[in-house]
User: Fold these one by one.
Assistant:
Number 1:
Amino acid sequence: MGENFKGFTKRSANTEGLLMLFWKVVRKATIGGFQKIMFDIQCVDPEAYDWIKNIPPKFWADAYFPRSRYSHLTSNMAESFNAWILSAREKPIITMYEEIRVQLKARFEEKRELGNTWSGMLVPKAQELLDMRKMKARFFHNFIRHGHAV
């Protein structure tokens, strides 16, 4: 949609300003913020506002998307993955696919070997956390209340 909007705004005197507002409204997380930026777009270029309003915001605006599209974790994972495959990204598609496949295979093998060194049912960090919480829980007491305040 961004490229379509960019093409639509080329006739406008304030193309850069409209594009900036467009990307702000796309990424705005709240409906109130979305409506404020839409009002700003309407003030700058009523035709651009009408063009945007013809497309239901649930398809392109974060504020109206029913679930979280992405979070910091997802974004960070995508950035890490893109950095990890950087050398492969510039290659033809089949070569890129093969390089990524080999990288993933090596990573999975490395993690499998690491997992084989663990003795418990849980990964070491989870076991450590569980043990710590069990130690703290030793000092808790369970009281059974009698009467109507249950």
Note: The chain is about 65% helix and 0% strand.
Number 2:
Amino acid sequence: GIYQVLLDRFPNMTAAANNYAMLLIRGAPSQDDLSKAASLVQRFELSDNPVYLDTLGWVNFKQGKSEQAIGILKRAVEGQGNNPEIRYHLGAAYYEAGRTEDAKKELEMSLASGVEFEGIERAKQLLADIRKG
């Protein structure tokens, strides 16, 4: 794809690495796609860019590393707390880690904006599950 071509030519193109990683982990990614995404986003560990931190955290989440994801996604929320997709990602990570009160707070905040985002239906489902108990 286009991102791979860009990265082959410009390996330090951070935006392309970010976008390609997010594309790779959409839906139910394969182990190969997860590994590729993880190698693309390693460089974001020391970043203070909330979008890149969100991608790094979401890759960790998709790999089943909820606690690691939470630490990273909290940094992303600190940098861009008004982004509903980042709040959804943090809420989902809290949910997977069994921290339902924290998950509820983040999921409610993600939906309160009224803004459409990737994963909005899943956010609604998780929140409904929490409210049901």
Note: The chain has one domain: 2-132.
Number 3:
Amino acid sequence: MKIKSLALMFLGVSAYAHFGMVVPSNSTVDDEKEANLQITYKFTHPFEGDMMNLALPNEAGVFVNGKKEAIKGLKELKEDKFSYFTASYDVKEPGIYQFYMDPKPYFEPAEDKFIRHITKTVVDAYGYGEGWDKPAGLKAEIVPLTRPYGLYKGNLFSGVVYYKGKPAKNVTVEVEYYNTKGLKAPSDTHVTQVVNTNEHGEFSFAMPLEGWWGFAALIDDDQKIKHEGKEYPVELGAVIWVQTKEYK
């Protein structure tokens, strides 16, 4: 009975993985009509669509031309009584734009820890094509080995997980599809796919559906947070979102 209960508990954790989300209206800007990007910031279970409350992020910005620029004017919205944010950003010149969010840590009593998912996505403007494989200088991040835009359904995505500037080996990377189509998984264990990084911090995953895919590398942070007189560990997530498309 204990074994069965433990198995069910782990299935529940697997099926309801947390993901920070930074998703723009498109992963490429090809003409001026697409230059006004609409960016959505959420904290969610992306396949099932369940939301958690996202407080105003400690930092929301874009890394472009080797510099960080703050994203201003975040607008708070509600979904099922939970807060999330949107913002507009005007792309004015060719470049690689890494949009990111560093949220306020979220306390998850069911897991007895805080969750801080540093999340990013990469947008190419006007076919710039250079610098998508450069880090944005975040405490934890996934640096792509595969170009993270212009991807087809079925493409293999590879990346390197970095923590404090160094590759993170033997780290679990959870993968989920942003399910806006009401798809049903064959079982709970199909909801969240799992891969591990190798000794060089590298991982790969083939994306079978068109849409947005989230990759969350989960790291035990070196800092703890005191809450109601007790210190709690922090799950530091390095998260990246990539978009796949089909031929028209």
Note: The CA atoms of residues 47 and 216 lie 14 Å apart.
